[in-house]
Amino acid sequence: MKKKLLFVIPNLNIGGAEKSLVNLLNEIDYQKYAVDLLLIRAGEGMLLKQIPSQVKLLKLEKKYQVFERTTKFPELYFLLRGRLDLVIARILCRITLASVKDMGKAEQYAWKFTRLFHSKLKSEYDVAIAFLEKSSFYYISEFVSAKRKVGFIHSDYAKLNLDTAFDLQYFKKMNGIASVSSECVASLKTCFPTLKDKLHLIPNIVPTALIHELAKEPIKLILCKPMLVSVGRLYEIKGFDMAIEAAALLVKNNADFVWYIIGDGPEKQKLEQQITQHKLKDKVILLGMKENPYPYILKADIVLQTSRYEGKSLVLDEAKLMYKPIIATNFSTVSDQIENGRTGIIVEMNPESIAKGIENLLQNQELRNTLSKNLSNEIYDAKETMKAFYKFIESEVN
């Protein structure tokens, strides 16, 4: 009989954890496992169409779907059904989200209200897997029946600025917690020393054949100039403001290039203003979200990761599989992925260093060729990572 797995994640909008989950679901052995996927925000995500047909998508019940509405008077819906408690809970949730400045902590503290809109799942599972921090962990801890409960943290936990005491009460209920790099596991051990025996390293799955196939999709680009590509959500932590400042410095030095940034997010307007201020509209182009960023990475002369921090960059793993010259800032986990001078270039986390790194690499074709050759000699085996995943989810309960 197949073992029943449940994955829980907020949505499938394009992001590192979301892409990692899609990649994992495309590698699972469906002869051995029956898989359900619960999106807390049902129907959200450009990656939904990449979910394998064997995966059963679940929806949360009506009261939570109404809770998530931002229009059509959800409070009135509950009031007409005699649920004054839910009216009050939704109001208090909104107040919490608005009053707590840190978004991560706001989501944590709002859980005491959002949990009132959930009910126990009827199905029972062999393994329930929270695939992102916060609400996925909380939901599985309280509302899922499973023989084994595990979770994934895809970032350097210490940099998330979350309330560790709040999370500890839920992490204790997990039989295992995995993270995607040795640095991230070390960060979890520092933050949760009493849980060190539950913490494991499970790298991201990167489907080599699928990525190379998707990269063949035709696209229209300015190909007459050296092409720089960055991919990521437009958040402050991704450092795209530094990228634009670096581009301005390159223009002052008469460098010829075009820099495509793929992604969307709350910093978009600010970045557009920054591009206009520096008169870079023909140099730095915000392409928005792309379901398939791989053709852009394939055609890039240099792939850049200008982040202030990362757990483990899926974009870097993907660029490495396409043997692209890489420049990355020295965020805390970068050495897990890049060997400076051999498989990429690591620069300081400021516009001047980023610009200098780009200029040097653009002018040094031999170095670009060497980086690409070194990457082509590296061996990545998704099967080994899947073995580690299966062992993780099927281990004896801690």
Please tag this protein with its features.
398 residues; 40% helix; 13 strands; alpha/beta; 17% strand; six-stranded parallel sheet
Could you give a short description of this structure?
This protein is 40% helix and 17% strand. It has 16 helices and 13 strands. The strands form two sheets. Strands 3-2-1-4-5-6-7 form a seven-stranded parallel β-sheet, with helices on both faces. A six-stranded parallel β-sheet has the order 10-9-8-11-12-13, with helices on both faces.
Number of strands: 13
Largest sheet: 7 strands, parallel
Widest β-sheet, arrangement of strands: 3-2-1-4-5-6-7
Helix content: 25-40%
- The low-confidence runs, each spanning 5 or more residues with pLDDT under 50, are none
Mean pLDDT comes to 91
Descriptive notes:
- With 398 residues, the chain is of the alpha/beta class.
- 40% of the residues lie in helices and 17% in strands.
- It is built from 16 helices and 13 strands.
Topology:
Elements: E1 3-9, H1 16-25, E2 33-39, E3 56-58, H2 62-67, H3 74-80, H4 84-99, H5 103-114, E4 124-130, H6 135-143, E5 145-153, H7 164-171, E6 176-179, H8 182-191, E7 199-201, H9 208-214, E8 227-231, H10 240-252, E9 258-262, H11 268-277, E10 284-288, H12 294-299, E11 302-305, H13 314-321, E12 326-329, E13 345-347, H14 351-362, H15 365-376, H16 382-394
